[in-house]
Amino acid sequence: MGILIMARKINSNGLKLIQEFEGLRLTAYADIGGIPTIGWGNTNSVTKTDVAKKKTITKVEAERLLKADVSTFEKTVDSLTKVPLNDNQFAALVSFSFNVGSAAFGKSTLLKLLNASDYKGAAAQFARWNKVNTKTVAGLTRRRAAERALFETVPAKNLLDEAPAKVCK
């Protein structure tokens, strides 16, 4: 009998973080880096032509795109990380890779430090990823601070798991 391994999923904290910082835009637009974007930061189903023609989608379609995009980055984080992660660490890394892309995450010092079990060093790396074309972007600075804060927050269920057992007589 085989062992069923469930794929990790982002928690609600991470999903809210992505939605808050990406913002919902139902009309195609070019983001700050000039990349065609629609919905909650979706870049792979929209073109420059869509931006020029002001393509629109429904909120339901935006939710479908977000779910598919998040699934991609859940797999990215799951496959590239080699150390144990709590739910908030996993969620923060999904948000981070969602924003910077799988290739950049895979080459990052953040990931190298993390996979060397240097969690504090990895957390400090979030702040370095706040630029677009060498210019510091306030929104990215805030996002990276939020991702780091989430990464460094022990989930409540983990706190309960780590609590010493109560001895009853």
UniProtKB/TrEMBL annotation:
Catalytic activity: Hydrolysis of (1->4)-beta-linkages between N-acetylmuramic acid and N-acetyl-D-glucosamine residues in a peptidoglycan and between N-acetyl-D-glucosamine residues in chitodextrins
Descriptive protein name: Lysozyme
Keyword tags: Antimicrobial, Bacteriolytic enzyme, Glycosidase, Host cytoplasm, Hydrolase
PANTHER family: LYSOZYME RRRD-RELATED, PTHR38107
Molecular function (Gene Ontology), one example: lysozyme activity
Family: Belongs to the glycosyl hydrolase 24 family.
Organism this protein belongs to: Agrobacterium deltaense NCPPB 1641
GO biological process: cell wall macromolecule catabolic process; defense response to bacterium; killing of cells of another organism; peptidoglycan catabolic process
Enzyme Commission no: 3.2.1.17
Pfam family, one: Phage_lysozyme
Gene3D superfamilies per record: 1.10.530.40
InterPro entries: Bacteriophage_GH24 (IPR051018), Endolysin_autolysin (IPR033907), Endolysin_T4_type (IPR034690), Glyco_hydro_24 (IPR002196), Lysozyme-like_dom_sf (IPR023346), Lysozyme_dom_sf (IPR023347)
Keyword Ribonucleoprotein: no
